[in-house]
Amino acid sequence: MKQSLLNFIKIDKRQSSPIHLQIVHAIKQLATDRKMNYLDELPSIDELSQTLKVSPDEVRNAYQKLLVENFIRFDDEKYYVNYINFSSDYYINVSRLYEIISDLGLTPSIKTIKKKITSLPIHLAVDPRIDPNESYVLLKRIYYGNDIPLALMDIYLPQATYQGIEKMPIDDKPLYEAIFASYQKMISSGRRLMSVVNLSRDDAKHLNAVRDVASYQVVSVSFDQHKNLIDITRSISTMNQYFEVEFDEHDIERITKNHFYYI
Predict the structure, then answer these.
(1) Are residues 127 and 40 in the same domain?
(2) Cβ neighbours of 2 (radius 10 Å)
(3) pLDDT tens figures, 29-39
(4) String of b and e for 42-73 (b: at least 16 CB within 10 Å)?
């Protein structure tokens, strides 16, 4: 793939647009056109500069801009695509990140790096059914794909409901599977709030990412079959994501009837 990308990345030196921005645009266009996929290796700075007959600094500046935007990642002296078609199911339906990573063709794994009893940060009390004065079990977990850290999760579980969960060996299991097996609680409803934040120093360290780059944060709240709280989770992802939405005929008729137009 890296060799074929050398043939796809094109610039036009007659344009007034700076060379490094043309390279940025060309790489982004290849990703959105699905001519390169998540974690495809990009040409090295020297390889691309020689192919395009431009200075290495132009390529270096382009790659640096893409790194800051989280569009590519740098690992083990190589550059990789960090842009994926992320299923909208993750935001709309009950879905598991573990399975989504697997659907990307990657080998998923989980590592729990912290377990402790603590209070809930007040900014995570995003639902009136949450009691911020309770004690919570915090599980801090990193989700990997092919051993590359993709998402960091701070999971808060009501201690009174999940006595002893901090001592359970659940490092390598999707959390809701473990909760159902041990506590017979099944997720039945929830809500998710998505926002863009700058990576903190600690989050960047855990995710092998650049500090202060824009990243996706999702705060989710889930409830069991009896409408009782299961967890409040804050997740940070360094994956640059997009998803596609298709409207059926009923949607289009409703939108048109109510005079909504997407432009």
Answers:
(1) no
(2) 16
(3) 888 777 887 78
(4) bbbbeebbeebebeeebbebbbebbbeebbbb
